[in-house]
Automatic annotation (TrEMBL):
Its EC number is 3.1.26.4. It comes from Nocardia vermiculata. Manganese or magnesium. Binds 1 divalent metal ion per monomer in the absence of substrate. May bind a second metal ion after substrate binding. Residues 71-262 form the RNase H type-2 domain. It catalyses: Endonucleolytic cleavage to 5'-phosphomonoester. GO terms for molecular function: manganese ion binding; RNA binding; RNA-DNA hybrid ribonuclease activity. This is Ribonuclease HII.
Length: 273
């Protein structure tokens, strides 16, 4: 079955690469006009460019935007995009300037240990100007597709912030429909502090959900692999069949079902090919 794609999502998704961060660069300023993101500013009184200075670390992008009057800056990231089970979790975070001093070790959540993420999580939630976490369940991912779910989750996460950002940095994807200027940053969770903070909020929240899910659905090992396609998870999936928390639109899940008694897995003829 062909999946319908929102035409707005088929547009240019190019962003700034992480290798650009830390070098002297210029970013064209974007602004929201008529409620749409990504349109070009036409007011001659606005600064036409944002200049990034060298050696700003994870604060390079945010500091450049704030210097140009575009703050406060929010970051958005997700966790669980590549999993075949469990929800997609999207978080947004708007860090206060003084919060950086207490966030030593802040980095892309994938580079941190579980203990490091758990240590940073309460600091981020206490020190952030605003933050929001959105959980998109497996059934919704199956209904609209993972990419559309990712974009929709980012929209919801930004809309849910109690403090309105002046600019939004997203990890990797252009997000149509955000009512403030935004920029996709490739590898953003390793390039901007606000995205790194959002990635930790999303990852910790999702991991906790998967641990709880392991208690409700024993046998799959969700507490260990968190729904990713590990050999242990795939073996359990073949043995037990998919649960209600598995994404039926995933190729390795589609076409499998349990007979409901012995756990024996049978193929669905509709997906036999």
């Amino acid at each position: 079955m062909r999946r319908r794609t929102d035409p707005a999502l088929a547009r240019d998704n190019r962003g700034i690469g992480s290798r650009t961060v830390g070098a002297v660069a210029e970013i064209s300023r974007r602004t929201a006009r008529n409620g749409k993101s990504g349109t070009t500013a036409r007011n001659g009184d606005w600064p036409p460019r944002v200049v990034m200075r060298r050696a700003g670390g994870l604060r390079t992008l945010e500091a450049a935007l704030i210097r140009s009057g575009l703050g406060p800056v929010a970051g958005v990231d997700e966790a669980g995009r590549g999993c075949c089970a469990g929800p997609l979790v999207v978080a947004s975070c708007l860090l206060a300037p003084k919060a950086y001093d207490s966030l030593a070790g802040l980095d892309d959540s994938k580079k941190l240990t579980e203990n490091e993420r758990e240590r940073l999580y309460p600091i981020i939630t206490r020190r952030a100007l605003a933050w929001q976490v959105v959980v998109i369940p497996a059934w919704e991912i199956d209904a609209i597709g993972i990419h559309v779910a990712n974009i929709e989750g980012m929209r919801r996460a930004v809309a849910g912030l109690e403090t309105r950002p002046g600019y939004v940095l997203t990890d990797g994807f252009r997000v149509p429909g955000i009512s403030v200027p935004s920029l996709p940053v490739i590898g953003g969770d390793a390039a901007a502090a606000c995205i790194a903070a959002a990635s930790i909020l999303a990852k910790v929240t999702r991991d906790r959900i998967m641990v709880e899910m392991d208690g409700a659905l024993p046998g799959y090992g969700f507490a260990t692999h968190k729904g990713y396609n590990t050999p242990e998870h795939l073996a359990a999936l073949a043995r037990l069949g998919p649960s209600e928390e598995h994404r039926r639109s995933w190729r390795n899940v589609r076409g499998l079902e349990s007979d409901g008694t012995t756990g024996r897995v049978v193929a669905d003829p509709a997906h036999a090919r």
